[in-house]
C-alpha cells in the first residue's frame, strides 16, 4: 500500500540517528554529554505543578478549542509587559509552538506555495513544509558574519508569485542570531511591499544577551494585518513537556480561519493549560536569574571555542545555541566517531550535525550546533572533550581535516 508523497518527503531529524550509537557507547560505560538538543535542564517553575496538583475537577473535560480564557488572558498580560497590545481574541492556544507553526502553514498556504526563510533554519520547518506541501525557499546567512541578514535585494530576488510569507526565527535556532532593528525593518518593508505574511517564531524571546531590548515586527502597527507571532512556553519556562504554544495575530479574518484548525483537533490539554497560566503570570524578573545562568554558560562555551584552532564562530546574541564551523570536512562522520571511537577520560559529547539545518543536505558539512543546556561545569568538560576529540580525529584522519 502506498503512502502519501507528502509523508514520503518528510525525513527523520538527523540528530535522532545517533541515539542507538549513544546507547551502545553508554552500555560500554562511556559518559555522554548531550549538547545536541534544546532541552533545558532548568527546573520548571513550581507554580506549574502546584496548580496541576490542586485541580479540583471530577471530569477532565474538553476545553474551548481556542484555549481557556484564563490562559489567553495570562498570555495577553505577558505581552503587555513587553509593550505589545494583544487581547484574547488575537490569541489561540496550541499544542506547543510546533502546532502553532503547522496551523500557520496550513492556514496561509495552498499546495505548492512558498515560504521564505533564512538558512540555516530550524530543521523541523522542513518537515512541516513537506507535510503541508509547502515549498521552503532559503536565503543563506553565514557563520563568518554572525548570520547577518543578506542585502535586501538577495531576499527580494527569492520572492516569486507563489511566495506567501517570510518566516523569521528570532532569536534563531540553530544560529543564536538576534535580528537587529534594522534587519527587522528590512523584513517588515519586504512583507509590506510584496503583500506577504511575516511570521515571527519567537520561542527564544527571553534569551537575548545584548542591550538592544525586545525588537519584533509585532511592534510595527502598519504590518498588523500581515503579522503572525508564533510562541511557546517550552524554552522560556523550561516546560517542553507541557506542550503549550500560541498563535497571535491582529488579523481577525485569519484568526477565524485558524480557529477551524483548533476546532478540528478539539482542545489542548486542560492540565497543561492550567499549569501554564501560572507560568505566564510570573513576574518579568523571573527571567533575570535564568538569563544570568545562560549568560555564564554561553561565555564558557564561547571562550572555549575561541581556543580551539580552526573553529569559526561569532558570539551569538540569543537563544542557547552555537553554530560553529569546525576544521573538518564532514561533521556527521566526526560526530559519529566521537560517540563510537573516542573518549576523553571515559567521556564524550554528542553534537548536532548542521547539514540538517539547511535545505540542501550538502550544505553545512563542516558545521555543528552546540546547545548550552547543561550546567557550566558540564559545558566546560564538553568543550575540553571537543578540543581533544578534534585533535585526535585530525591525527587519525588528516585528509578529513582542513
Ligand atoms: C525555533 C523553534 N520553534 C519552535 C519550536 C517548537 O517548540 P515547542 O513545540 O516545544 O513549543 C522549537 C523547538 O525546539 C524551536 O527551536
TrEMBL record:
Superkingdom is Bacteria
Domain named Aminotransferase class I/classII large: residues:
35-342
Q: What is its EC number?
A: 2.6.1.-
**Cofactor(s) recorded in Swiss-Prot or TrEMBL:** pyridoxal 5'-phosphate
What the entry lists under Gene3D superfamilies is as follows: Aspartate Aminotransferase, domain 1 (3.90.1150.10), Type I PLP-dependent aspartate aminotransferase-like (Major domain) (3.40.640.10)
User: Which one of the record's GO molecular function terms can you name?
Assistant: transaminase activity
Identify the keywords attached in UniProt to this record, alphabetized: Aminotransferase, Pyridoxal phosphate, Transferase
Q: Which family does it belong to?
A: Belongs to the class-I pyridoxal-phosphate-dependent aminotransferase family.
What is the name of this protein? Answer: Aminotransferase
Q: Which organism is it from?
A: Acetobacterium fimetarium
The major lineage groups are: Bacteria, Bacillati, Bacillota, Clostridia, Eubacteriales
Amino acid at each position: 500500500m502506498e503512502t502519501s508523497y507528502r509523508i514520503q518527503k518528510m525525513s527523520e531529524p538527523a540528530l535522532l540517528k545517533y541515539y542507538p550509537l549513544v546507547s551502545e557507547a553508554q552500555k560500554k560505560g562511556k559518559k555522554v554529554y548531550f549538547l545536541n538538543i534544546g532541552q533545558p535542564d532548568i527546573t520548571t517553575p513550581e507554580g506549574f505543578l502546584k496548580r496541576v496538583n490542586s485541580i479540583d475537577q471530577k471530569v477532565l473535560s474538553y476545553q474551548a478549542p481556542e484555549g481557556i480564557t484564563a490562559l489567553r488572558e495570562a498570555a495577553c498580560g505577558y505581552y503587555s509587559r513587553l509593550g505589545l497590545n494583544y487581547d484574547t481574541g488575537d490569541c489561540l492556544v496550541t499544542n506547543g509552538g510546533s502546532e502553532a507553526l503547522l496551523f500557520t502553514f496550513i492556514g496561509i498556504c495552498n499546495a505548492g506555495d512558498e515560504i521564505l526563510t533564512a538558512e540555516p533554519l530550524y530543521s523541523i520547518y522542513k518537515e512541516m513544509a513537506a507535510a503541508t506541501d509547502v515549498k521552503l525557499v532559503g536565503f543563506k546567512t553565514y557563520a563568518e558574519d554572525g548570520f547577518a541578514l543578506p542585502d535586501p535585494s538577495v531576499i527580494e530576488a527569492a520572492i516569486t508569485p507563489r511566495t506567501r510569507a517570510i518566516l523569521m526565527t528570532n532569536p534563531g535556532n540553530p544560529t543564536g542570531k538576534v535580528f537587529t532593528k534594522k534587519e527587522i525593518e528590512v523584513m517588515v518593508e519586504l512583507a509590506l511591499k510584496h503583500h506577504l505574511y511575516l511570521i515571527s517564531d519567537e520561542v527564544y524571546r527571553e534569551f537575548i544577551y545584548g542591550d538592544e531590548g525586545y525588537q519584533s515586527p509585532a511592534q510595527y502597527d502598519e504590518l498588523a494585518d500581515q503579522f503572525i507571532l508564533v510562541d511557546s512556553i517550552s524554552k522560556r519556562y523550561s516546560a517542553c513537556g507541557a506542550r503549550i504554544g500560541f498563535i497571535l495575530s491582529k488579523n481577525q479574518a485569519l484568526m477565524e480561519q485558524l480557529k477551524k484548525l483548533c476546532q478540528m483537533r478539539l482542545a489542548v490539554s486542560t492540565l497543561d493549560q492550567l499549569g501554564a497560566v501560572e507560568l505566564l503570570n510570573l513576574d518579568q524578573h523571573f527571567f533575570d536569574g535564568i538569563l544570568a545562568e545562560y549568560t555564564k554558560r554561553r561565555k564558557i562555551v564561547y571562550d572555549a571555542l575561541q581556543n580551539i584552532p580552526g573553529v569559526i564562530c561569532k558570539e551569538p546574541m540569543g537563544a542557547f545555541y552555537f553554530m560553529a564551523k569546525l576544521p573538518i570536512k564532514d561533521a556527521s562522520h566526526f560526530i559519529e566517531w566521537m560517540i563510537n571511537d573516542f573518549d576523553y577520560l571515559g567521556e564524550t559529547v554528542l553534537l548536532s550535525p548542521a547539514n540538517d539545518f539547511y535545505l540542501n543536505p550538502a550544505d553545512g558539512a563542516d558545521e555543528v550546533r552546540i546547545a548550552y543546556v547543561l550546567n557550566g561545569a558540564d559545558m566546560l568538560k564538553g568543550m575540553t572533550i571537543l578540543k581533544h576529540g578534534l585533535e585526535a580525529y585530525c591525527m587519525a584522519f588528516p585528509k578529513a581535516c582542513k
